[in-house]
Amino acid sequence: MKIKLNQLANAIRFLSIDAVQKANSGHPGMPMGMADVATVLFKFHLRFNPKNPSWVNRDRFILSAGHGSMLLYSLLYLTGYDKFKLEDIKNFRQLNSICAGHPEYINNSGIETTTGPLGQGLANSVGLAIASENYKKRFGSKIINNKTYVIASDGDLMEGISHESMSLAGHLKLKNLIVFFDNNKISIDGSTSLSVSDNYKKRFESYGWNFIEINGHNEKQIDNAIKKAHKSTKPTIISCKTIIGYGSPNKSGKSSSHGSPLGEEEINLVRKKLKWPYSPFEIPSEILDEWRLIGAKGEALEKNWLDELNKSKKGIKENFNYFNNTIFRDDLNDLINSKKEKYFKDKTPAATRQCSMKVIEALNDLLPNLIGGSADLSGSNNTKASNSVVLNSKNYGGNYIHYGVREHGMAAVMNGIALYHNLIPYGGTFLIFSDYCKPSIRLSALMGLRVVYIFSHDSIGLGEDGPTHQPIEQLAGLRAIPNLNVFRPADMNETLECWEASLNNEKGPSAIILSRQKLNYISKLSGKENKCLKGAYEVNITAHDHKVILIASGSEVSLALETQDLLKGVNIESKVVSMPCQELFDQQNEEYKNKILEDNNLIVTIEAGAINCWFKYLKKNDLAIGINKFGKSAPYKEIYEEMNLTSNKIASIIQKKLMN
């Protein structure tokens, strides 16, 4: 018995319908509408192996329209991914189910990225496509020739991040990127005409994309559009005119099928209309077998690929294995220690953004998998080193991307680069613009991706650019994100250590916060220990019976040391603690934390920013010195004076506190 494509598609539809109904929560309309497109893609075009979901040369399938998650879960179950059983489908949206409300990235599962916040998956796909081209340049088109396919909704294309990322993709001529636009003209509020009147064809052609329009329920048109996209020299968007809730007599084409279960009565009508006389969650064996055969083709595809890798030109296999399997931790540690010794000798004052560039220059020679970039601030962030090579449409083998003024897009693209296989992305902008990046940073942390964010111009210390560019609450906001390490180094030594800590963290992202102004070298001893890994450490103690502990980060560590000198002059002994990373300090054992904080002392925290993230270290009578208002435009020393962030002012406050 030959199984028809619409029968395969209906298996997706009814698993989706039944799962949403059982959960009494979810979005059935999109899976019902895009089932035909997904079926043609998986049966005839997508290269994947359910037995090895991490095969490097697999095609990536990104469901950017994450609300339609049951489309993805149905496909993964039907094609035979081990992590997806029928019981998982039945437990859709339940506690600890792999079938979460929106797809959540799990390595080696078949879920390629976390989606749901619209536009994010689309931007991730641009990063995946860039990474694929980078790999292809390194190892050749016989070894790497995978494509990235995306299903995106009207909501994805409304989000501003879609403009940023798709514009970049067109500029880079990422011909391996193919997007299916689920053009069903329905959003939550109703018809998309309520809020959108874009000419999509002109929009995407202006980006440098191919634009193809098809009937999303016509199998031949779907197939032909994909074949046409494969021959393109540009990224392609295929506008699929679909009917949301396809097959539902009363809810198809309506917003009522978007975000709510259809209801038992309507589901019965859908079964009748689509001639599906089976119980909930029942997939006839002949249809399931056909889907499993589609998945099983991947084993032969990967075997052929391995044969190609094994017979490749001399050096390619060895380079491939070296690039993907080498652990650089020991070499990195040796490099960092050698640079620490070098810079300890002269102790030259320097802005930490300049220190970071020196680190990047050294890292470029060690780490072939480091891919940098900046949101049009390369010279200000100092993210582009003298040995950086620009990655562009003429040279995908570079290690530096000019992202343009696209902070949000940059951050999401970096997530895609990190997801591809073994690349480590870093990218820079001003700390104030971390707000533009934050949704993507949050997803980096949620997925546990090794992404390094470089944020320079870290405080009012940037001076004349004024309050629009002077961050106040940004440090506190970043520190509030779970699983994100926020580093604020105080000198060259700490910058080296923070970079090392960031690169060795394979379970989450890091943000390295850097100064514009020059800072004094504060490290007192040269040593191999990475003190920043403890999050905080003692810099200087004037006497063991000290009464005051000054805790600071970044540029304010120098300010704390100046304050310590003034206190010493009036016979107040103190200890200065540098706390470059609160998150790592919070992970230390109680013995170490007690050693740093010491109960019987007045603790004074100093930072040129919001103070609320410091209260967790303070007792009732301790002091948090910082800024609770916006800055001003003036030379940075004058602003510090205006904000009462001077050693004289702080020492005076401490003296008064001790007298009370």
Short description:
With 660 residues, the chain is of the alpha/beta class.
Q: Can you put this structure into words, describing what you see?
A:
This protein is an alpha/beta fold. The chain has three domains: 5-305, Rossmann fold (3-Layer(aba) Sandwich); 329-513, Rossmann fold; 532-659, Rossmann fold. Strands 9-8-10-11-13-12 form a six-stranded parallel sheet, with helices on both faces. It has a five-stranded parallel sheet with strand order 1-2-3-7-6, sandwiched between helices. A five-stranded mixed sheet has the order 14-16-15-17-18, with helices on one face. It is elongated. The N and C termini lie far apart (91 Å).
Number of domains: 3
The CATH architecture name of the largest domain reads: 3-Layer(aba) Sandwich
Low-confidence stretches are none
For CATH, the homologous superfamily of the largest domain is named as Thiamin diphosphate (ThDP)-binding fold, Pyr/PP domains
Total strand count, please? Answer: 18
Distance between the termini: 91 Å
Helix-strand layout with pairing:
Elements: H1 5-23, H2 29-45, E1 60-63, H3 69-79, H4 86-90, H5 120-139, E2 148-153, H6 154-158, H7 160-171, E3 177-183, E4 186-187, E5 190-191, H8 200-207, E6 210-215, H9 219-230, E7 236-241, H10 264-273, H11 285-310, H12 316-325, H13 329-346, H14 352-366, E8 370-374, H15 378-381, E9 400-402, H16 407-420, E10 424-430, H17 434-447, E11 452-456, H18 474-479, E12 485-487, H19 492-504, E13 510-513, E14 537-541, E15 548-552, H20 556-569, E16 574-578, H21 582-586, H22 590-597, E17 602-606, E18 623-625, H23 636-642, H24 647-659
Parallel strand pairs: 1-2, 2-3, 3-7, 6-7, 8-9, 8-10, 10-11, 11-13, 12-13, 15-16, 15-17, 17-18
Antiparallel strand pairs: 4-5, 14-16
Helix pairs in contact: 1-2, 1-3, 2-3, 2-9, 5-7, 5-16, 7-16, 13-14, 13-19, 14-19, 16-17, 20-24
